[in-house]
Amino acid sequence: MEQSGEKLTYAEAIDRAGDAIHRFPLVEVRGVPLMEHIANNWDAIWAFRPHPSDLLISTYPKAGTTWTQEIVDLLLNNGDADVSKRAPIAVRIPFLEIFSPPPIPSGLDLLKDMEPPRVIKTHLPFQLVPEGFWENKCKVIYVARNAKDNLVSYYHFDRMNLTQPEPGPWEGYIHKFMKGDLGWGSWYEHVKGYWREREKRNILYLFYEDMKENPRREILRIMEYLGLALSDDVIEHIVQLTSFKVMKDNPMANYSFIPMPVFDQSISPFMRKGEVGDWANHFTPEQAKVFDEDYARQMKDADIPFRASI
Fold it and tell me: What residues act catalytically?
């Protein structure tokens, strides 16, 4: 990253941005609320043309994105932990739509400096993914997490991510989630959009709960989808390296490289628990009842096999 000829690390660029960092409001793009700086640069994002060899990792926020990124990076590098520590994960696998105040590089800036094949991250719902991904038949890995755990994780993330809108109290946040009044919009429409298109678009649709239940099995599924053939020893090594505990202690994956004033990890760590069923520690019985009734209404047209416990 350069600013006036000066090389900056990712963390230094964020520090240099200083007072320009704040909680950005949401602005609708084609009916989907996105952070203001994303909406302001939408034309450039929509115009992005991937190479056919590029791989897209897509999730609703806080559904296992970083975990999947780290698995993919290790698979592509034969399980070499040193190679996967070559740079922070946000630099190794750019976030397609993210735009921040200068001198923080945008996702598009990082991608310009990388040669295909590239691995790219997005939280965009299916209908907002730049058309070039589908026209060029790029491979896409989508990870979905059950709604209640996803909601809990997003709530704590919005508390500590000081560029996202103020989450407000827990009770109110539940209703924001149900209405889709959060960054990247409705969880319900997000998971359904990719589910409907998964076969037509050759999307590998994964579930967070399956990954927790049997990480080796899901890592093998990803390996096969990518057309790789790695030894059992390498796969076992990747299972170990991508365990929650190891990743939580890995400075290239745990987002400790993002300093204040962006991530205040004293409020909540970026990698908080990584559990299935933690929602039961947050929802009151009445909140769960209201949520479940609304869930049944919003998901009545979908047969997606989510599990809220394993």
Answer: 123
